[in-house]
Backbone:
C-alpha cells in the first residue's frame, strides 16, 4: 500500500490525488501527510487494487501533451499489432511498473526511453515508455527555517528556493480503436520546458517510424479549434486566453482563481475591451470543463497555444501542433476532451472515424 501512495504522490498534484482518493472511498484531510495519517489510523482494510487502477489511468491519460497523426485503417491495424507484440526493456522501470522506481534508481535515471508495458482496453492499444527527467521546481521556504524568522518576515513576503529533482515520466504511443489517428502523448508535468516536450515527441515519432514501411507525416494542425472553442459559450469555461487586437496590442487574460460560473469570455473587462476594437485574433486558449460523479468533481482542461498571432498555416494563421490536456483523473476525462477537440477542429474531415 505504501508503494501505491508513494507513486501517486510522485505523479499527481494533491488536488488531483484527493479526487482519486475520494472517488475510491478513501477519507482525505489537508494535504498528503495529514491524509495518509488519517487513512493509516482509521484501521480500515484498504484495497490497493483500486488505487493501482487509478494510477495506471493517470499514467496513460494524466498531464499529457498530445500530438495527433492522421493514419488510415490499414496503418492503424498494423500499428496496433506492432504495439501488442513489442518487446519490453529489461530494466528497473519495467519490473516496478506501474509503481515508481526506487530512490536510488530514480537518482541514477537518464533520459533514455524504456518500453515498460503494452496495453489494450476498450479505447485502444498503447505502448508505455518510461524515462527520468530532472525538473527545476520552486518551493516555498518556511520562515521558521531561519535563525531569526521574525526579521525575515519583515524583509520578505515569501522566500522561495529552486530545487532540481528527478521525475519519472511515462509517455504513451496510443492507437485508438475508433479514431483514425495515432496519438503521441508526452508526460508534461509542471516544470518541464515546452521545448523539451517537443523534443521528447520527436524521439517517440522516430521510434514509431521504424515499425513499418510508412512514415508519419506532420501532426494535425489544431489551430482551427481555437476560435470555435472561444465562440461557443456552452463549451466549458475559458480560464485563459491570449490575443492580438486590431490596434496591435497583445492581451493575456487569465482568471487567477476559479469562481463559480466565471468565464473569461463573459468577464466584464474582456467584453468591454473587445467592443472597443474591430476584432481580436486569439492564438492561445485554455478551456476547462466541470462535472460531478458520486460527489467528486472532475475538471479536465485543454490548452491550445501558438507562439503568436501569425504563422505558416493556411491564410497566414498560426500552427498548433499539439494540445496540453491536463487534470484528467480518469481515462473517461481524457476521452471527453479529445472528443470535444475533434468536434471543434473538425477532425472527422481529416480522418476521425465516426
Residues:
Amino acid at each position: 500500500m505504501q508503494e501505491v501512495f508513494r507513486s501517486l504522490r510522485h505523479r499527481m498534484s494533491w488536488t488531483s490525488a484527493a479526487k482519486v482518493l475520494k472517488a475510491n472511498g478513501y477519507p482525505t484531510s489537508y494535504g498528503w501527510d495529514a491524509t495518509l495519517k488519517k487513512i493509516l489510523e482509521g484501521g480500515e482494510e484498504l484495497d490497493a487494487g483500486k488505487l493501482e487502477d487509478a494510477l495506471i489511468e493517470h499514467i496513460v491519460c494524466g498531464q499529457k501533451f498530445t500530438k495527433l497523426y492522421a493514419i488510415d485503417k490499414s496503418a492503424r491495424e498494423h500499428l496496433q499489432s506492432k504495439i501488442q507484440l513489442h518487446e519490453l526493456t529489461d530494466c528497473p522501470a519495467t519490473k516496478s511498473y506501474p509503481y515508481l522506481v526506487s530512490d536510488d534508481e530514480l537518482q541514477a535515471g537518464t533520459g533514455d526511453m524504456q518500453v515498460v508495458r503494452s496495453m489494450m482496453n476498450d479505447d485502444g492499444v498503447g505502448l508505455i515508455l518510461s524515462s527520468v527527467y530532472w525538473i527545476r521546481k520552486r518551493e516555498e521556504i518556511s520562515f521558521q527555517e531561519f535563525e531569526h524568522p521574525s526579521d525575515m518576515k519583515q524583509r520578505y513576503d515569501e522566500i522561495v528556493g529552486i530545487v532540481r529533482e528527478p521525475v519519472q515520466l511515462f509517455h504513451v504511443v496510443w492507437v485508438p480503436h475508433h479514431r483514425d489517428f495515432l496519438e503521441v502523448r508526452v508526460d508534461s508535468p509542471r516544470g518541464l520546458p515546452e521545448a523539451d516536450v517537443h523534443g521528447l515527441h520527436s524521439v517517440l515519432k522516430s521510434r514509431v517510424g521504424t515499425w513499418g514501411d510508412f512514415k508519419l507525416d506532420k501532426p494535425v494542425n489544431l489551430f482551427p479549434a481555437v476560435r470555435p472553442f472561444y465562440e461557443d459559450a456552452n463549451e466549458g469555461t475559458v480560464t485563459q486566453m491570449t490575443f492580438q487586437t486590431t490596434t496591435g496590442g497583445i492581451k493575456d487574460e487569465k482568471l487567477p482563481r476559479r469562481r463559480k460560473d466565471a468565464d473569461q469570455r463573459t468577464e466584464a473587462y474582456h467584453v468591454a475591451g473587445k467592443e472597443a476594437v474591430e476584432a481580436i485574433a486569439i492564438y492561445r486558449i485554455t478551456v476547462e470543463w466541470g462535472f460531478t460523479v458520486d460527489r467528486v468533481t472532475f475538471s479536465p482542461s485543454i490548452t491550445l497555444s501558438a507562439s503568436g498571432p501569425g504563422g505558416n498555416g493556411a491564410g497566414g494563421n498560426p500552427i498548433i501542433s499539439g494540445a496540453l490536456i491536463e487534470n484528467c483523473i480518469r481515462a473517461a476525462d481524457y476521452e471527453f476532451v479529445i472528443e470535444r477537440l475533434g468536434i471543434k477542429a473538425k477532425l472527422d474531415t481529416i480522418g476521425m472515424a465516426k
About this structure: The chain has a mean pLDDT of 88. The two ends are 42 Å apart (CA to CA). The first helix runs from residue 2 to 11. The CA atoms of residues 141 and 159 lie 5 Å apart.
